[in-house]
Amino acid sequence: MSRQNYTFTSESVSEGHPDKVCDRISDAVLDAFLAEEPEARVACETFATTDRVVIGGEVGLSDQDKLHDYMGKIDEIARACIKDIGYEQDKFHHATCEVTNLLHEQSAHIAQGVDAAADKDEGAGDQGIMFGFATNETPELMPAPIHYAHAMLRRLAEVRKDGTEPALGPDAKSQLSVVYRDGKPVGISSLVLSTQHLDESLSSEDIRATVAPYIEEVLPEGWLTADTEWHVNPTGKFVIGGPDGDAGLTGRKIIVDTYGGAAPHGGGAFSGKDPTKVDRSAAYAARYLAKNVVAAGLADKCTIQLSYAIGVSKPLSIYCDTFGSGQVEDAAIEAAVAQAMDLTPRGIREHLSLNKPIYQRTAAYGHFGRAPDADGGFSWERTDLADALKAAV
C-alpha cells in the first residue's frame, strides 16, 4: 500500500537560468526552421558561458539554398532570445556576447530511418523510452510541488519584465517541499528561492519582502503557515547570474521540464529537437494519454510509458500504471490508449499538430501543466481524448 502521509520536494528554474537560456535558444532555432518548412529536421544544442554562446548540431531543409540562408539568421535568433530574457550584464549582454554557429546538415545515416517512407510507416528517429504522467491533485492534473515551483518563478518573471520589480534579475531557482496528508497536498513545510538582484545593496531580508507577496498570490490559500520555513537567497548576495555566473547547456533540466521527480523520465531532453524525435513527441503523447486517462475519471493518477526503436514506426511497448487508483484494469487502459491514438511518430505529430513553430514557449516553466494555445501550442495538454478512452474500456 502506498504511503499517504509524507513530504515531497520539487524544484524549478527561471528562464534566465543558464541552462534555460540554452534551451530557449535551441527551441527558437527549431521554431525558425519549422516556420520555413513544417518537416524541417533540427537537433540543436546550445552552450553558454561568460560573453559567449556556441550553437551546434544538425539541421535539414528540403531546399538547400534556404538552409544556407537560415544559417545566417542564427546569430540574430540567439540575441533576440537573450534580449527577451533580460540579460544586459557587463559579461553577458545580448548586443555584445560572441555567438558562434556550428550547425551543419543532418547526417544522411540518421535521416534514412525516418525518411524510409513518407506515409505512416515512417520510422522513429531514435530508440528510447518515454513517460507521461498525470494526477488529479491540481486542476492542471500535475504534481503540486513542481506545478507551484514553476508558478512562483513565472510570476516573478512577469513583475520583473513589466517593470513592477526592476531590481530582480533574470536568473532564479525555486524549491517547494509539499506536505501530503491522506495522499493529498495540504501545505508547504519549506520554501527555497534564490533570485538574482541587480541592486547589490539588497539583503536577503529585502529580497524576501519584495518577493513574498507574489509567492503568496500563486500558492493555494492556507498552504503557507507560521511553520513554513523560508530560505530566500540563503547564501546572501546573488548579483552575478546567468551564463556569466555558471555555464549553461541545452537539456540539463529534464526533471524541471517534466514532473519534478514525481514520475519517471525516459532520459531524453526535449529542447532543440524537431517532433520526428520521439524523445520529444512521444513524451508529449504519453503526457496527453495519461492526462486524458485521469480527465476521463479512469484513475486518480496515471503513468504511461512508450518505447521505440530507430527506424520502426509502431511503439514496441505500451505500459500503464495507475498506482491502484484505476477504475478499470491497467491492461484495459493500455489497450484503450492504443486504440484511441495512432502512436506512430507521424501519427503523433498529426494528432497533436506538432509540425508548427510552437516550441520556444516551452523552454521555461515546464512542458506540462500549461494551458493549450489557440495556435496549437501545448496541444498535448488538451483533454479531448477522454470520451474516446472511456468508450474504449
Write structural notes for this entry.
The protein is of the alpha+beta class and 393 residues long. Helix content is 33%, strand content 24%. It is built from eleven helices and 13 strands. The chain has helices at residues 18-36, 64-71, 74-85, 108-115, 144-161, 204-218, 254-257, 278-295, 330-340, 345-352, 386-392, and strands at 6-13, 41-49, 52-60, 88-89, 92-93, 98-105, 128-135, 168-181, 184-197, 229-232, 248-249, 301-308, 317-321. It has a four-stranded mixed beta sheet. A hairpin with a 2-residue loop joins strand 4 and strand 5 (92-93). Helix 8 packs across helix 10 (345-352) and helix 9 (330-340) crosses helix 11. It is flat, with a radius of gyration of 21 Å. The chain starts with 5 loop residues before the first strand and ends with a helix.
Please write out the topology.
Layout: E1 6-13, H1 18-36, E2 41-49, E3 52-60, H2 64-71, H3 74-85, E4 88-89, E5 92-93, E6 98-105, H4 108-115, E7 128-135, H5 144-161, E8 168-181, E9 184-197, H6 204-218, E10 229-232, E11 248-249, H7 254-257, H8 278-295, E12 301-308, E13 317-321, H9 330-340, H10 345-352, H11 386-392
Parallel strand pairs: 3-6, 9-10
Antiparallel strand pairs: 1-8, 2-3, 2-11, 4-5, 7-12, 8-9, 12-13
